[in-house]
Write a structure and sequence with these properties.
The chain is mostly helical and 286 residues long. Helices cover 79% and strands 0% of the residues. Helix 3 runs parallel beside helix 6, helix 3 runs antiparallel to helix 8 and helix 8 packs antiparallel against helix 11. The longest helix has 45 residues.
């Protein structure tokens, strides 16, 4: 009877995994079939023409601008918040409130963030429809992800690293930025990569804050259209599924490239951290 239950459980697990992979392959395959014919050099590097034809170069640049600005703002705030919660804060009511607020932020629909960004950044601060307004709104959206992943990364750092550093005479702050944070960098980068995917795939908040201008942005104060917003407008206004699918293919490839670069960087950092930790532990033993 026990073996029968184990077999049933394994079948259900494999079936669940197969269904998940199958859905992913179906979605990606559908998008590629619909849009791959439009992708060429002119489409990737040409200027957009509202009358038809042209390329998506302005939208790729706008998307990269948005990714960079959002991460520049959100990453330091998120990492420092996590460090405070895990390393310095006294575990009490205040910490519980902060953690609850973080979890609440992650559950708010993106359209609500967009309405806030439109009311605060666009109107009150008078940024107008601009890349900076959209990026600041997205930085608030991705803060919970960065905070939670950074906290988890700090938790898995072995206590022996901290003990070895303090035993060698390092201060608490020196231990933090020379031992603990470098050891947690792979987990932190993973959180940043997840946030990057959220930024790339966001459309509702950007529609209300960055605008829909199809021209090449000249500064962070320029209104612009990202790839996701472009795909939405192509489907909504023109009913052009092929063009939207082609933009989706570019998004998928962009996410894949950024993920591969991040994993390569994590691998290098992990090798350096392990060698440093080995030297630290050996020094502490002696």
């Amino acid at each position: 009877m026990r073996k029968f239950k184990e077999v049933i459980l394994k079948v259900l697990l494999y079936l669940s995994a197969l269904i998940t992979v199958g859905i992913l392959v179906f979605i990606i395959g559908f998008i590629f079939i619909k849009g791959y014919k439009l992708i060429n050099f002119n489409y990737l590097f040409g200027e957009y023409k509202p009358s038809g034809g042209g390329g998506i170069k302005p939208f790729i640049v706008s998307t990269l601008y948005t990714i960079g600005l959002s991460l520049i703002v959100a990453t330091p705030i998120g990492v420092l918040s996590a460090v405070y919660l895990h390393e310095y804060a006294k575990q009490g009511r205040l910490v519980k409130i902060i953690r609850y607020s973080t979890e609440a932020l992650s559950g708010i629909p993106s359209i609500v963030y967009g309405l806030f960004g439109a009311a605060f950044f666009v109107t009150t601060l008078k940024f107008g429809y601009s890349l900076i307004a959209g990026s600041l709104t997205l930085s608030i959206i991705i803060l919970p992800v960065i905070i939670r992943t950074t906290e988890e990364a700090l938790k898995v750092v072995p206590p022996s690293y901290r003990e070895a550093s303090l035993g060698l005479g390092a201060t608490r702050f020196q231990t933090l930025y020379k031992v603990i944070l470098p050891s947690a960098v792979p987990g932190i980068v993973s959180g940043v990569v997840l946030s990057m995917g959220r930024v790339i795939g966001e459309s509702a908040a950007l529609f209300l804050t960055a605008g829909t201008v199809y021209k090449m942005p000249t500064s962070i104060m320029s209104s612009a259209r990202t790839l996701t917003v472009h795909a939405f407008l192509e489907t909504k206004e023109k009913g052009d599924i092929a063009s939207a699918a082609a933009a989706g293919i570019v998004l998928i490839v962009m996410i894949l490239i950024l993920n591969l670069l991040a994993k390569f960087k994590i691998k290098i950092i992990t090798i350096k951290t392990r060698s440093k930790s080995t030297r630290l532990n050996s020094s502490h033993r002696t």
